[in-house]
């Protein structure tokens, strides 16, 4: 008992578990080690928090990301000091780029050994400072509960992001006074949620008069919560404006919605990019004018007034000059905008809007995603399209991807009806993301159909997690488009580097069926388009993890494509147009 | 569109052409940042500048509110208006940052810097050094038979001018604190 306060003293390790429970955490992904043993000891002695033992710390963080993105709740990972922490860096950076709320707990050597180059010591807060939203080194057990509660607040408030708490081993052992989330004094970190009403009025005026408007939405809509998606749908239906989305924002507006133009950007749809280029009013909701979206900046949507709704002031005017910046949470701003627009009589420029739509319909006739499935070789687009056809009616489907051509094909050919159903590494482009993320999604949704659309090269980067999936009976389906190439690298080498395919093929690949069996999972291989549907059905029918090795055409390129250094209206639609399209200036871009 | 006047390491030669629609005239701004006085907070601010390629001309930091554990960081930086806006927005995003104030925008601020000069010499040079120090209201804080250490406060221009005068006389070493600044007026 604490003599002064009479409060019960518990150890730092007990505080960690208690604070996680008080924050509503039910799942932790982690990997033990010397510096976190006291916390693992506490986890062992309770049943409220389930711990999933991954096979690599990077996977623990991606799994926490998958958990967070599919539930809207923060994900939690627990790793040890030194290599445990450095292995978490890729996951932290990934979560920072995609604004995913996760809390990572790392062990640290005891406070009296910090700075002595102790065994498994690393300057974790130093290393992770630029790749977290915020991080803490806790040197005092009494400060621990406050820091953990603050960490959850920071991770989930404003623009979400990853946070890290570094806890030395002696702090875990020492005793102190626990305080609950309600007893902690309010943080000064309180990002503003309501948008400036004058700016929102300006937006409403523009909506009323726009001749060629477009909604350009991003991951911010999904991060804002389900209400934001609902309000967005209502606004789109009521105004009748076309809508496109970034890779991160897919699902906020349903792909079956009649105003949907498909994804925009480097591998976005022709009609979406053309509409962005020619619009006179661009309403950016929770997107950040990423270079994959804008293409050449000085030719980016030259005729439009740009409205930008974002909760992060540093996103506004960072890349593209905004005419009407609205700082606030998407749901709050959309609610105000809808209310104002309705109160002012629900006006839109119907005649001009009709003309705009007929122009868009004309662009749609280009059918930029068309391809021909002929002969005995599966084209990757066909494989994704069949997967979509056979799974889209599942009430609880979640799609994850790795990074590369397969990721773009999944975004192009699969339709997302709801938010939180699509998990992909957008900003950082982390190969090896999909498999552990899918694991986190499946943990959060035991009855869900979780599919990781992968390329064989990306998939191998975190293949050790098959062990985790088998151990915990997570029936994730690994749908691997196997072209025995690093497809996107190969595509760029073809277009930019004189078809010199430097290190872009996958040699000595494992036999994926045998690999699956070695892990105790099911393996399926398919190479014939006529067998594809049955093979996919077999995969779906199996109650357990499956590796599906789909052998596809080896030299397929991903189109449409805005080449580097080109504008939205300078898209490549197919192989015939690829000769000499990227000039010297464009080839320095990534 | 003339090319951006950005220093080495900028993206001005990239075909990304990130900033075509903004003014390309570089401005000098003094920014005050109120932060929690906690471990690593200075590293966060400096890391932001180096990580995003912004300039730091000078930087001072000290605790100003002992009870509230608040420190004041004064940064003098240069950049185009768009870069300055980004710097402020990025600073404001750091969790332990309470307030970011652009003193250059708020009106003419009072800016002061303290510097120590070691000047070596005998005879006429020694007398000239003392005479100039008097004109600049610099104090002698250490003296030997052939050297002085002067203490001087003032704005950056005054200290630069004093240094230029002392250099031919025998300036051997100089230490400067960087700029501390407050806005004028009662707010």
UniProtKB/TrEMBL annotation, chain A:
Q: Which UniProt keywords apply?
A: Amino-acid biosynthesis, Branched-chain amino acid biosynthesis, Magnesium, Metal-binding, Thiamine pyrophosphate, Transferase
The entry's cellular-component GO terms read:
acetolactate synthase complex
Keyword Metal-binding among record annotations: yes
Q: Which CDD domains match?
A: TPP_AHAS (cd02015), TPP_PYR_POX_like (cd07035)
Q: What pathway does this protein act in? A: Amino-acid biosynthesis; L-isoleucine biosynthesis; L-isoleucine from 2-oxobutanoate: step 1/4; Amino-acid biosynthesis; L-valine biosynthesis; L-valine from pyruvate: step 1/4
Alphabetical list of InterPro entries matching this protein: Acetolactate_synth_lsu, AHAS_TPP, DHS-like_NAD/FAD-binding_dom, THDP-binding, Thiamin_PyroP_enz_cen_dom, Thiamin_PyroP_enz_TPP-bd_dom, TPP_enz, TPP_enzyme_TPP-bd
Segments forming domain Thiamine pyrophosphate enzyme N-terminal TPP-binding = 11-125
Q: Family, per the entry?
A: Belongs to the TPP enzyme family.
Which PANTHER family does the record cross-reference, listed alphabetically?
ACETOLACTATE SYNTHASE CATALYTIC SUBUNIT, MITOCHONDRIAL, THIAMINE PYROPHOSPHATE ENZYMES
Task: Name its GO BP terms in alphabetical order.
Answer: isoleucine biosynthetic process; L-valine biosynthetic process
Q: Cofactor comment in the record?
A: Binds 1 thiamine pyrophosphate per subunit.
- Please state the Enzyme Commission number of this protein: 2.2.1.6
Cite the GO molecular-function annotations of the record: acetolactate synthase activity; flavin adenine dinucleotide binding; magnesium ion binding; thiamine pyrophosphate binding
Domain Thiamine pyrophosphate enzyme central span(s) in chain numbering: 200-335
Q: Which cofactor does it need?
A: thiamine diphosphate; Mg(2+)
Q: Where is the signal peptide?
A: none
Reaction it catalyzes: 2 pyruvate + H(+) = (2S)-2-acetolactate + CO2
Q: Which NCBIfam families match?
A: acolac_lg, PRK09107.1
According to UniProt, the name of this protein is: Acetolactate synthase
Q: Please verify whether the record's keywords include RNA-binding.
A: no
From TrEMBL, chain B:
Alphabetized, the UniProt keywords read:
Amino-acid biosynthesis, Branched-chain amino acid biosynthesis, Transferase
Q: Catalysed reaction(s)?
A: 2 pyruvate + H(+) = (2S)-2-acetolactate + CO2
A biological process from GO: L-valine biosynthetic process
**Listed EC numbers:** 2.2.1.6
A GO cellular component annotated for this chain's UniProt record is: cytosol
ACT domain residues: 30-105
- Give, as one word, the top-level EC class: transferase
UniProt-recorded Gene Ontology molecular function terms: acetolactate synthase activity; acetolactate synthase regulator activity
- Give the InterPro entries listed for this entry: Acetalactate_synth_ssu (IPR004789), Acetolactate_synth/TF_NikR_C (IPR027271), Acetolactate_synth_ssu_C (IPR019455), ACT-like_dom_sf (IPR045865), ACT_dom (IPR002912), AHAS_ACT (IPR039557), AHAS_small-like_ACT (IPR054480)
Instruction: State the pathway, as annotated in the record.
Output: Amino-acid biosynthesis; L-valine biosynthesis; L-valine from pyruvate: step 1/4; Amino-acid biosynthesis; L-isoleucine biosynthesis; L-isoleucine from 2-oxobutanoate: step 1/4
A Pfam family it matches: ACT_AHAS_ss
Family named by the database record: Belongs to the acetolactate synthase small subunit family.
Q: How does it assemble?
A: Dimer of large and small chains.
UniProt xrefs under PANTHER family = ACETOLACTATE SYNTHASE SMALL SUBUNIT, ACETOLACTATE SYNTHASE SMALL SUBUNIT 1, CHLOROPLASTIC
Q: What does this protein do?
A: Catalyzes the conversion of 2 pyruvate molecules into acetolactate in the first common step of the biosynthetic pathway of the branched-amino acids such as leucine, isoleucine, and valine.
The protein in question is named Acetolactate synthase small subunit
